[in-house]
Design goal:
Length: about 150
């Protein structure tokens, strides 16, 4: 299974924000869309960062009063790990777990085309495994229902 197949089922809508917008605006997007991260894009819709709830919480602990008026660029993660639609979901899941990232922007030719979460990856793998189990159970039942030849 690939990232493209996951995005085909999930959809490609991505909530984005500009780097000069305030953290207050980012929080509103996170809350309004019930999401854990927003992708920071430049004017050409190319990802230049990602901002998660965790980034904001950590900054608020250090500077609880000033954090809300800071620009997104002050808190965003700049070295964003991205995927491409052709990536294998198993390897993406490994990378996300190994690098401890929960959201992976997906790009094609430098442009943002989707985003997946570690939850999306786990659910897709679970569904795939369940399909394999169902197929094996069906085959087992079919095999048991076949008439047996008598030895004679």
């Amino acid at each position: 299974m690939t990232v493209a197949s996951l995005l085909a089922r999930k959809g490609v809508k991505v909530i984005t924000i500009q780097p000069d917008q305030q953290i207050r605006q980012a929080l509103a997007l996170l809350a309004d869309h019930n999401i854990g991260a927003v992708v920071v894009v430049d004017t050409g819709a190319r990802p230049i960062g990602i901002l998660s709830e965790r980034d904001i919480v950590r900054a608020a602990v250090r500077d609880e009063r000033g954090v809300f008026d800071k620009p997104v660029s002050a808190l965003m993660t700049r070295n964003v790990i991205v995927g491409v639609p052709q990536d294998d979901l198993a390897s993406v899941g490994y990378t996300m777990t190994d690098k401890r990232i929960r959201h992976l922007p997906v790009v094609e030719q430098g442009r943002l085309v989707g985003i997946i979460s570690i939850g999306d990856v786990v659910k897709a793998q679970r569904d795939q495994y369940q399909g394999e189990v169902d197929t094996l159970q069906f085959q087992l039942i079919a095999e048991q229902d076949k008439p047996r030849a008598r030895a004679g």
